[in-house]
Design a protein that fits this description.
Blueprint: H1 13-37, H2 46-70, H3 74-97, H4 104-133, H5 138-160, H6 197-227, H7 238-261, H8 271-297, H9 303-329
Helix pairs in contact: 1-2, 1-4, 1-5, 1-6, 2-3, 3-4, 4-5, 6-7, 6-9, 7-8, 8-9
Length: 333
Amino acid sequence: MPRVSPNPFHLHADCGEMLHNAAIIAGNLSHECRNWLAQYATNDYPELQNIDALNGQIEGQVRDLAGHLVFGLGEHCKRVVTQISKKSKYVSRLLSTLDSDDLVEEIEFVRAANESQLKILSQIDQCMMLEFCGSPTESIKKGLREVSKKIEIGERKINENCVETSGVANSEQVPQAPKSVSVDYYVVPGFADYSDAKGASKASIARHLWNLARDASNTSHQIQNIATRYLVSKPHQPKINELINLAGQAENQARGSLRSLSQFGSRPYNPAQMNQQISRQVLNQINVVKQKVSDMEGKEFSGELSESLSKSFGALYAYVCSATIVASALVGK
């Protein structure tokens, strides 16, 4: 059992809130990496599979960290930050061992996110240490305030870019995904180019479907972020953990669609068959997302949490409607 100090230290409320926002961004960075790695973490690249799995573990631990930071439970948070930092540094070492020339540019996204995450974790650790010793320096506070601003901007982007159901039949009107939950770089995968008009049209549909699935993954992840504030305050309320688990399952299904779409163009000798297979996989994954949202809705939350969740549920239902049309168009004439 972990050693428990007889005099555990608590963070001040304003410091705990600031660090909570910073922790959310650290988790978002791992989430973004997992979305991006959906097309690369295959059996051809076992190192990337390991990096993807580690980011999944980091994501979960950061959620625990954020929930405890809200209530200023400094001693527990200090221990968790140390554990997360070790895993993030291990990801950095794995990235340094990659020797594949054809993935240099693609992995730069993951490398940049990992570097940002390590900086944020270091700031959180420094701030807690200074809080324990007295008070954080103004430079640390300023840095974390900037981090807090970024997450507010990221959340606004998510709300502004919620998928709309109208006009989806025209693939050119499908809304673009926000640049990121937390970072300012975003690249749609380079789907295979085709010389004929039909092929080009299918590639465009695949890009739009990727954007929609990525939106759904981000929205599901955001539901988990919202729920972190209630993890410690209501530890015996099973609905919060159930909500996080269901949102995680919806996120995994949306990410599964990204993985399915990464196969686009991989069978040039029979593209119609490949497109039909991808469409079938994505439609199945969309149906699972729909079921998970229905299950989350049945939990009945109240107050501010209910209002926040209602918007996210609406966005996910809109994704189900939009993505169903677009996925079906992938096999159309």
